[in-house]
Structure to design on (581 residues):
């Protein structure tokens, strides 16, 4: 069994989606628990991708194809996971702030969060403060992750935090910020709960906050 | 302002590239239109050219040939189709700067990538919108360059953002960022096909531009983004496999016409600098100081490569004070200016979130420390 999981993790690491699908099916057919396939097979593979990405061994293409392979496996597990009674995973809603269409950094954060077992709600880009507020009140994520690539759009993070506060929701959710021009000092200034300089750091930061 | 009669901007820039002695560090000016207009008003000059003269700017950018292809299609929902067939959406950002002044800024972002769902090389090959060098009218090129050279400045040709020679960028526009990056690993033949079409177009287009200019272009300017804030988009190995030889061809083409080359890339590209040098690049542009160790670059590669940029637009220019801008400029001049090989400039455009007082402080500090 552990060999099967190890192999599954390796296919994921290599970005081999057909291999991941085949082995996930095999694990399901063997009657293994879906949550265990996820936690012991897929996610450790993705965690290794994240580590090697942070260490400069892997680059964005490798992360993207590994994430696609992970998603292929998760799709097969989804119906089974929904039936199971496992602990609910932590939820993060991610979005690039209003006025900014840059997406890839935020997507990498989503990939690493999923790889770490978080449920990720990707709100896309050009997300206005009202949308973040709506998501916090309706979907009740544990965390909000905001991204901005431009110095011109980063002030929108402040507006969003103010909107969340004005809606009386500031105690309900932790707020993470990131993106090229973002610094810890900026996060402190606008009252964000956390900042990370890269996607793997964002996961570490999220874990610290929860 | 401090223009010495004996040395003009062009000579100053060439001397910097050759790392020979010069009267002062040459200066370039990268600013968004709104910031340029504010500076024009601040200095009380007539227009942008007068501003550049007033500030002693040593380079002039020409737009190159004019587009004569089919008119760019504007769709009902405001989306604009560019000459690659990529749909773009105008984005307007509004805000207030550090001193409370309201600003607004519009840029064109990719909305739809037309080759996103192609699954075969044949589909890529038969794409009807591959641009052709015939889409452009080159008859104005030489005169435009000669007009720009009247100021005595070095003439830079690089088109605007959409027709500036690049590889990764147009491939991402056409195929979608994630899909193209995935292709590099899983569908390398598709990636190759896109890159080959793109490079063929740029090589034939630039050949025509250089011929039309008849020696009036000093610097050929390319722009791509190979770096992120912390590292490279793709591994050095992948860069060498897919991008390096085409980049070499771009440099060789310019050099055959006696033109120096300048390459813009955002982000931390430190690991690719030896490859850029190997391809014959003359000037590396951006030097985003929050992403790269500029001291290291200067020390390791300064003997083989000139630099342009290095002034931080991510924090110092929009969020700093005139005093911190001045200190920043002093550090750039000392660190990068030593021994030549440096053209003073911001790492990217000054955008509307930069307070006018900071933009002015930048140019005033240059006067103080650029000599």
């Amino acid at each position: 069994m552990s060999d099967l999981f190890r192999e599954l993790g390796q296919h994921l690491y290599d970005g081999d989606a057909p291999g991941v699908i085949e082995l996930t099916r095999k694990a399901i057919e063997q009657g293994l628990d879906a949550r265990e396939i996820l936690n012991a097979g897929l996610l450790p593979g993705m965690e290794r991708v994240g580590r090697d990405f942070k260490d400069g061994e892997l680059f964005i293409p490798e992360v993207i194809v590994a994430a696609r392979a992970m998603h292929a496996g998760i799709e097969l597990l989804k119906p089974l996971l929904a039936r199971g009674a496992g602990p609910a995973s932590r939820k993060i809603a991610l979005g690039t702030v209003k006025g900014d269409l840059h997406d890839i950094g935020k997507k990498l954060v989503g990939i690493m969060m999923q790889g770490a077992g978080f449920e990720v709600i990707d709100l896309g880009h050009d997300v206005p403060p009202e949308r973040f507020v709506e998501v916090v009140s309706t979907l009740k994520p544990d965390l909000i992750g905001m991204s901005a690539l431009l110095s011109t759009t980063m002030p929108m993070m402040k507006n969003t935090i103010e909107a969340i506060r004005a809606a009386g929701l500031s105690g309900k959710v932790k707020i993470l910020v990131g993106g090229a021009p973002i610094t810890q000092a900026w996060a402190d200034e606008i009252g964000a709960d956390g900042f990370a300089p890269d996607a793997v750091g964002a996961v570490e930061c999220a874990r610290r906050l929860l | 302002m401090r223009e010495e009669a004996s040395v003009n901007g062009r000579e100053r820039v060439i001397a910097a590239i050759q790392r020979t002695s010069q009267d002062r560090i040459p200066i370039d000016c990268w600013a968004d239109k709104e910031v340029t207009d504010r500076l024009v008003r601040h200095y009380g000059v007539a227009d942008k050219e007068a501003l550049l003269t007033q500030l002693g700017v040593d380079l002039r950018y020409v737009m190159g040939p004019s587009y004569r292809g089919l008119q760019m299609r504007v769709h009902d929902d405001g989306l604009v189709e560019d000459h690659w067939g990529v749909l773009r959406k105008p984005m307007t950002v509004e805000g207030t700067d550090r001193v409370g002044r309201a600003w607004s800024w519009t840029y064109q972002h990719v909305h739809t990538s037309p080759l996103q769902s192609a699954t075969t090389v044949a589909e890529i090959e038969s794409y009807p919108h591959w641009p052709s060098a015939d889409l452009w009218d080159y008859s104005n090129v030489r005169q435009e360059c000669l007009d720009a050279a009247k100021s005595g400045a070095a003439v830079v040709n690089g088109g605007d953002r959409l027709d500036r020679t690049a590889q990764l960028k147009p491939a991402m526009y056409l195929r979608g960022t994630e899909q193209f990056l995935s292709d590099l690993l899983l569908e390398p033949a598709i990636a190759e096909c896109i890159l080959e079409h793109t490079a063929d177009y740029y090589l034939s287009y630039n050949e025509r531009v250089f011929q039309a200019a008849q020696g009036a272009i000093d610097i050929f300017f390319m722009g791509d983004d190979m770096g992120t804030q912390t590292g490279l988009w793709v591994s050095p190995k992948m860069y060498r496999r897919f991008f390096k030889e085409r980049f070499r061809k771009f440099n060789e083409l310019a050099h055959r016409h006696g033109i120096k080359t300048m390459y813009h890339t955002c982000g931390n590209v430190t690991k690719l600098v030896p490859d850029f040098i190997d391809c014959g690049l003359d000037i590396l542009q951006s030097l985003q100081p929050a992403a790269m160790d500029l001291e290291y670059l200067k020390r390791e590669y300064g003997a083989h490569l000139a630099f342009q940029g290095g002034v931080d637009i991510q924090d110092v220019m929009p969020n700093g004070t005139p005093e911190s801008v001045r200190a920043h400029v002093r550090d750039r001049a000392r660190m990068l200016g030593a021994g030549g090989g440096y053209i003073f400039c911001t790492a990217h455009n000054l955008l509307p979130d930069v307070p006018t007082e900071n933009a002015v402080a930048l140019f005033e500090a240059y006067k103080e420390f650029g000599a």
